[in-house]
């Protein structure tokens, strides 16, 4: 199980690095835009991301 978690973590790092590598200006603008959001909006985005990820894992498993 620990090996799979390590693999998942590595893949997450690769996927998160793609946008800053390909589009650094757009990525910076997006991050600055996120800094202006309220805590409520950030929490809703986090919840949506977790639910989407959980749903996709369920469908793929």
Secondary structure layout:
Blueprint: H1 2-22, H2 24-35, H3 39-60
Transmembrane segments: 6-23, 44-60
Keywords: Membrane, Transmembrane, Transmembrane helix
Protein name: DUF2065 family protein
Describe the structure.
With 61 residues, this protein is mainly α. The protein contains 3 helices and no strands. The longest helix is centred in the C-terminal third of the chain and has 22 residues, at 39-60. The protein is flat and about 35 Å long.
Features:
61 residues; mainly alpha; 90% helix; flat
Short recap of the structure:
The chain has helices at 2-22, 24-35, 39-60. The chain is mainly alpha-helical and 61 residues long.
Helix content: over 70%
Number of strands: 0
Distance between the termini: 15 Å
Number of helical segments with 4 or more residues = 3
Overall structural class, as computed from helix and strand content, comes to mainly alpha
User: Helix and strand succession?
Assistant: HHH
Radius of gyration: 14 Å
| Largest sheet: number of strands, sense, barrel closure | none
Mean pLDDT: 93
Q: In terms of per-residue confidence, which ranges show pLDDT below 50 for 5 or more consecutive residues?
A: none
Shape: flat
- What amount of the residues lies in strands? under 5%
